[in-house]
Amino acid sequence: MLPELKIAQLRHFVWVHELQGFHAAAEKAHRTQPAISLSIRDLEGKLGQSLFEKRNARAARPELTPFGVQFMAYAKELLAHHDRVIKDMSLIAQHKSGHLRIASVPSIASRLLPDILTRFIGDATDLHVSLFDDSSEVVLAMVENQQVDFGIASLWEQDSDIRFIPIWEDSIGVVCRSDHRLAGEAELSWQQLRGERLIGNGTSRLLAGTEAEELVADAQFYMSNMISLLAMLEAGMGITTLPRFAFPPEHSQLRFIPLSEPLVTRDIGIVCLANRSLPVAAQALFDFILRDNELDPSAL
What we know:
38% of the residues lie in helices and 22% in strands. By secondary structure, it is α/β, with parallel strands linked by helices. It comes from Pseudomonas taeanensis MS-3. Keywords: DNA-binding, Transcription, Transcription regulation.
């Protein structure tokens, strides 16, 4: 059976050599000189060889034996590897290192996550982040396939291995060009949209099961890409319905008008695999988002 070498003993050995004395090594280790001598003897016993030459003069500087010279390189290599692992794991434990993978619906990815991630990451230059933005269905699939640590979505199947923690509430509104006849309204009902040329999109399904369901069926166009949808709206092709978070607030040519009848809202939250722990950085971000929205992580 191979002997188990203690990190502390390796440090004592290196310090005695580098500091040229047992007394100096004892001061650095905050130990007594006899304790350092005992540590070295125990290490020599495990190795089966002397590390330092025997000297009669107590004042003489300790000199390595030929075996000690060879072992010194290994001792320093072991200590460097040990310290590197401890440092890396410490950074990971403090979510300052590692790789964080998140999938999110585009509305949250573009509107909220930039500020959240900027404040969360801070000066952690060794923490790498991969962010994938796509539909709720794709986000859920990435979570289920363990391609990401967790996702942010508005749809999930209750009878599945996915856990959903609601964070934000989003309301549906009508988006039209600023010169459209409806642009001056403070709020709208679905009846006011009859006769308008409607452009459907991926979020139009939120109207399903409501009084406004016929608007989805009557949509003349369908755009799956947000950039294309906004371009069609800018061109005056028609109007659409969108969650507020999905509407770019800085857009000068388009207007968002709340839909009051029916009042349609959606919950957006974190989706992750149930009964599976998150990586350290992902758990830290999860808790950060909860606290940021005044939710208690320990209560979930």
